[in-house]
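User: tokens in, sequence out, please.
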């Protein structure tokens, strides 16, 4: 009898917890864009929020971000690692077309005083601030003209791996 009672309580607890779990899942789905390798906008909404994560292994979770011309774009960058910004810093920098990634990155490496954005940001469409493990930041900007752009992390030595395409359709 005691065992049965225990089992009943256990079942009730599981039911209770799984209800809570469902709610959490729904919340998560709203900001799910970016958990896939490609992040894209599914409709012609005026605004789009794109979630990008960076980790302690110097990786972005997203390789392609697709938005539509005229959209207001918010990039939310979350550093899912533990390392500090001065060791494993990440940002998202969307570069103007024609910007050479290696030369930009080498200038960025020397631009520590301006958060690794060189030349007053003349080659940059938009960028987040540089963050460390456990931090989240975001930037909102108007999508530039249709075309393909590069996005990188401008922390010294990161852009070789931490880069992707920002595509405006
Ligand atoms: Co980085």
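Assistant: Sequence out:
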């Amino acid at each position: 009898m005691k065992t049965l009672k225990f089992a009943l309580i256990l079942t009730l607890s599981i039911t209770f917890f799984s209800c809570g779990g469902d709610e959490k899942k729904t919340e998560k789905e709203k900001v799910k864009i970016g958990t896939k390798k490609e992040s894209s906008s599914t409709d012609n909404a005026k605004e789009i929020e794109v979630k990008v994560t960076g980790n302690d292994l110097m990786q972005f979770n997203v390789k392609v971000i697709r938005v539509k011309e005229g959209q207001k774009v918010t990039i939310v960058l979350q550093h899912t690692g533990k390392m500090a910004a001065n060791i494993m810093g990440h940002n998202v920098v969307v570069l103007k077309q024609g910007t050479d990634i290696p030369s930009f990155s080498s200038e960025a490496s020397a631009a520590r005083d301006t958060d690794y954005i060189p030349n007053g940001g003349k080659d940059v469409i938009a960028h987040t601030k540089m963050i460390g493990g456990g931090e989240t930041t975001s930037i909102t900007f108007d999508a530039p003209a249709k075309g393909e752009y590069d996005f990188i992390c401008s922390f010294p030595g990161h852009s070789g791996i931490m880069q992707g395409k920002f595509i405006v359709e």
